[in-house]
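REQUEST FORM: STRUCTURE PREDICTION
Request ID: SP-0412
Submitted by: Lab K.M.
Chain count: 1
Length (residues): 323
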Amino acid sequence: MEDKEILSSELPEKITKADFENDFEKGKVWYYLKTVLYLLLSAGLVAFAAHCLIEPNEFTIGGVSGIAIMVSYATKGAIPQSVIVFFINLPLVIVAFFFVKKKFAVLTLSNIVLQSIFLLILENCGAPRIEFAEGTRIFSSIASGVCIGAAIAFAFKVGGSTGGVDIVAVIIQKKCPAPSIAWMIFFVSAIIIGASFFVFYNEKDSIAINLLPIMMSLFEVYVESKTNDSLTNGFESAIEFRIITDKPEEMSLALMKELSRGVTEIPATGMYTKEKHSMLLCVISRRQVNALRRIMKQIDPNAFAVMSGVSQVLGLGFFSSEH
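STATUS: Completed
RESULT:
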C-alpha cells in the first residue's frame, strides 16, 4: 500500500475528460479559424493544380476536376473549369446533404464554391500557366499530385471533401461494404482518365506520345494517394511499444512521469523458459521514441521491446475529438 502511495505521489496529475472539455471551450475560435484555413488551402490547391499545372500540360485527373479540365481543353476555354466544377458537384452535394451528414455536405459545398471562385480568378486574372518542356512534363504530374493529395487531406481533416468522387465514395460507404469504395473510385477515375486519350489525341503524333497523357494521369493519381495518405496519417499517427520487462513498476513510473503517457501491464509467460514476466503496452508520439529508448536502457537494459506504427490514436491524452 505504501509503495502505491509513493508511486502516486510521484506521478504527473491525471488528465481527465473535464480538462479536454475546458480546452474545447477555449479552442472554439481556433477550431473555426483552422477550418476556414484548411478550406481555403484545399480549394486553392485544387484550383491551382487544375488550371496552372494539369491543363497546360495536356493531361487530366479522375473526378469532376478531370472532367472540367477535359471540357475546358476541348472547348478551348469556352466552357471554363469554374462553371463545370460548380454545376456537376452541386447535385452531388444535395444528395450528400440528405444521405450523409449535413456538416459534411456544408463543408464540401464550401470547398466547391471556393474552388469555383479561385478558378474564376485564375481564369480571368491572367495567372501563369506552367508548361513543362518535352521530357520534363512528368514533373507536372508530381507537382499536381502533391497539391491535390494535400488538398484532399486538408478537406478530410475538417470533415468535408473536395467534391466529385469523394462525395460518391462517402455515399457508397453508407450503403456498401468498405472494399467496394476503393473499386468504385478506381472504376470512375479509370473511365475519366481513359476518355482523356480521345481529348488529347493528336493524329500527327505516334501512339506512344498519345498515350503519354494517360501515363501522366496514372502517375498523378499515385502521387496524390501517397501524399493524401502521408498527411492524413501524419496528423494523428503515433508509435506503439510492447515492452517485456522484469521491472514493470520502475519502468511504468519512468514512462508515466517523464513522457506523461499511460501504461498498461499485461502478464506474460516465456513459452521456452516458462518464466513469468510483464508486458507493458504504451502508445507515444513519434518525437518521444528516443526518450523511451533512453528510459528502457536506464531502467532495464535486458528488456525486450517491439515497436510498431499506429495510423491513428483516439482518446484522452493524444488528440481532441472532432468538433
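NOTES: The longest helix spans residues 207-235.
Reviewed by: T.R.
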